[in-house]
Specification:
This protein is an all-alpha fold. Helices cover 75% and strands 1% of the residues. Strands 1-2 form a two-stranded antiparallel ribbon.
Amino acid sequence: MNFDFSLLTTELALFVLGLSTFVLGLVVPSASRRGLGSFAALGLLLVLGIAVINWSNQGVLLNGMYLVDGYANFFKVMFILSAILVILGSFRYIDQHVGHHFEYYSTVVFATLGMVVMASAGDFITLYLGMELMTISFIILVAFRFMDTKSLEAGMKYLLLAAMSSAVTLYGLSLVYGATGTIIIGEVAEAVARGGNSPLLVIGLTMLVAGLGFKVAAVPFHMWSPDVYEGAPTPVTSFLAVGSKAASFAILLRLFLGGLGDLHGQWAMLVAVLAALSMLVGNLVAIPQTNIKRMLAYSSIAQAGYILVGLVAATEAGVKGVMFYAFLYIFATVGAFTVVAAVYNKIKSDEIADYAGLVQRAPLAATVMLICLLSMAGIPPLAGFVGKFYLFQTVVQGYMWLVYLGLIMSMVSVYYYLRVVLVMFRDDPKDPSPIEFGSAANMTLIIAMVITLVLGIYPGPLAEVANTAAQTFFLR
């Protein structure tokens, strides 16, 4: 059997980068370890270039256990890009509040590697290994501020609940294997098409919804999200919100559309209900929040509800909508959390009231926060509006009630987002001294702002790439 290692170039490059970052951290003097952030960012830029260059190099490894297609490559680029932005936006925060530079940056790279493996997983074992590599890396990252009680508490909660969700997911996969006799996702689809549904398969499917619902923070499996988002280091919260969520949606689509698509009638309404509950609870509970990280956590829960709509559609257009929205969600979320991290460096507070007069202290940061929040709310002509349009147009036939609910909840979200905007632009600052972000953080803010605006005004190129990648998903 021929094994084409060129298909694993991105994965091998990430592994070498993560290992070399860790080893360099052990070898170089402690005074020089701050440069490891730049080393990791430049290395990820190189890996991003490799992923883009190898986009057309697609194939199947190990008889379907590892799939390198346009769908997987799209998500790989997304994960690496999010890691670059998170690292660039976190230099000062890590210097001041974390300190363990090489462990932090190498763990971020290994978390990215786990996501990349998840996107290409063609069988249950590979899927689970990638998911656990990502999850264990995030457990470490969440508890990185080990001298801070909130960070330790968040790490313990994430450890316990992530372990429980992984166990539920693994048991669900084992039940699907028991019902179909195979762990290869493509062969699962063939077995389901031949034998139809069985009680064992339906139970396994339900457990997969529960286990993976935790990973995407969908209601009622969202209980970990607000506390972990608040307690974790802010750059980790940002990466958790974009990378982990996107990777979990990648395997959700791969499992439910690629393997269990013929059972769409069994799980579509269940997923639609989860999407509706996530939109309702996420947006309504975000309203009374006074801590900006908790508010963004509940906003993230609502965003998971919007993205689940694409899974409900179970069509090529639905897959395209999920991919498009997940991509633009990176920039809005990383932009917002970069502002939160920099403001915390200055004022040591995450309370919304302490953002008073931010436009006077950091005009660029306030402007970027405004654009990112309005994009999340789906206000035209920003990217979030286009993303929601692509998602909800896929369920107009058959799930119109979900479209109406999404529209209403998007209007509700405008209220609590504008609360933050009013505090930043209307109220006078308690301390008028400027807040400095640093060149790397400013670069992150500018990239987030520009791409959010450009994708809202001119979404065509990204939509075409997402559409082409979605087509490769359905070719097997």
